[in-house]
Please model this.
Amino acid sequence: MRELNSVVAFAEQSNELYTAFKDYRDHWLSANRHVKGKAFSEKSLDDKDKVITKLFADEVAKRSGISIEDTDPAHYANNPMVRFFADEIIDRMIDMVIPDVLNTSVGLIAEIQYLDWGDTGKFDIKNSGLFNVSKAGYRNRDTLMQRLDDATVTLVPENHQVTTYITLFDILAKRKTIGEYVMKATLSIEAEMLNEIWSTFNTAMSSATLPSALAVTNYSEKSAINLAQKVQAYNRATPVFVGTAVALKDLLPSNAQFRYFLDDDYFKMGAVPTFNGYDVVTVDQVADKANLDTYGLALADNKIYVLSPASDKIAKVVVGGSLSHTEQSDFNANLVQTSNIQKAWRCGIITNSIAGVIEL
Model:
């Protein structure tokens, strides 16, 4: 995955911290998200976090031109230059993580565009139509004159903000670690993003929104194949079956004589890897923010989606830059030093492709 321009500049300016945090990030994604293909050192995440915290403090001192050795941590953390550069470094570290976690979560259904602070996203949508071909006599000069224009759609990110009590003083005094803080902040932002993206997707893919020809309410093997054929024919791209682990349990051959062995992919992966020639992809569940007290889930376990990611992804997402601000401790009545992280994003259904849903 191509890194953001701000992250590339950060890597050039603070290579040692960048390298250490990249190693920590890849280790965390491999251990917690089971992302394959990540290379990282053998040290524990806790040990890496301690190294990152030291490198973070060193980088803040280098950029600000002020050493923590010149004063105590409390006064040092309140210095405006120290806070400014600490906030900038934290923003770059967040931007190192967001693309990876989003791509592994919703990369199948959404095209994600990353912007700088205050920018507007622009998506060029290809016209998926074909020219009409007419029968014509040999003496005809012209038939139906046609033109198929593409479309451009803009999407403006909406700002979001998270305020924390974890202070710069805690990190510089080594009471807290920067790696854990950045990952927690990033996962909090990601959780909110995922709820908004899946909510938008679920609304667009409901049987009340889709044409009846693209919504199957009584599942059978033949009805699922028929829906996949429709999506493939009109998108001119091979579709995939997408759903949660629970939903995909029902995507099975209808032959009652079919037998499975314990070493089959169905038992290893929880679902068949292919269904009548179409790939099957499992998506991870997401905690439903609106129903946290009842441990609700955001994705429907009774729906299987038929999508053609190769033609055009159903959702479009724009993600703006990060902007952090650490306040002085005496700005609040209780003398607490707070940190604000602002991140802008927005999701919309913008596509030239069709998709279908199977309700189980």
